[in-house]
Amino acid sequence: MENKEDIIEYISSYCTNHYNELEKAAINHHIAQVKFLPYKNKVKKMADAYERNTSTNPKVLELLKNGIEEFYKRASERVFKENFEELKLNRCPKCNGIARTPKAKQCRYCKYDWH
Ligand SMILES: [Zn+2]
């Protein structure tokens, strides 16, 4: 009784180590624009971080063209399809549903508590 969308969300939050190089570069690029760009003319460290993480690779930029939400969804769908067996998902011992976080010990579906 688990929801695939919940698994996709879990992958987006906790399994980005399974993203490929382009996808990882896309995350870094996004962080650079959001976190480092606003400070890059004021703080040297931020300027360096911006330079290091910004990508000019068209393939990376292509991944982000529909926005970060869409990017995470697609990349996580790919991981879901291609790396599902390698994922260490935190699942409910009772109903096997996906937990909200890797450390959660209560099931959102059946409410089972495994503390
Ligand atoms: Zn459960």
Describe this structure in words.
With about 120 residues, the protein is mainly alpha-helical. It has one domain (about 5-85). Helices cover about 50% and strands about 0% of the residues. The protein is built from five helices and no strands. Helix 1 crosses helix 5 (about 70-80) and helix 2 (about 20-35) packs antiparallel against helix 3 (about 45-55). The protein is elongated and about 55 Å long. The two termini are about 20 Å apart. The mean pLDDT is about 95. Zinc ion binds near residues 97, 107, 109, 110 and 112. Zinc ion binds near residues 94 and 97.
Q: Which secondary structure elements does this structure contain, and how are they paired or packed?
A:
Layout: H1 4-14, H2 21-36, H3 44-53, H4 58-63, H5 68-82
The H-and-E topology, N to C, reads as: HHHHH
The average pLDDT value, as a whole number, equals 96
- Which strand-content bin applies to the residues? under 5%
Question: Number of DSSP helices?
Answer: 5
- Class from secondary-structure proportions: mainly alpha
Q: Tally of extended strands?
A: 0
Q: What is the first-to-last residue Cα distance?
A: 22 Å
Low-pLDDT parts are: none
Fraction of helical residues:
40-55%
Please give the largest β-sheet.
Answer: none
Number of domains: 1
How many whole angstroms does the radius of gyration measure?
17 Å
In one word, what is the shape?
Answer: elongated
Bound molecules: zinc ion
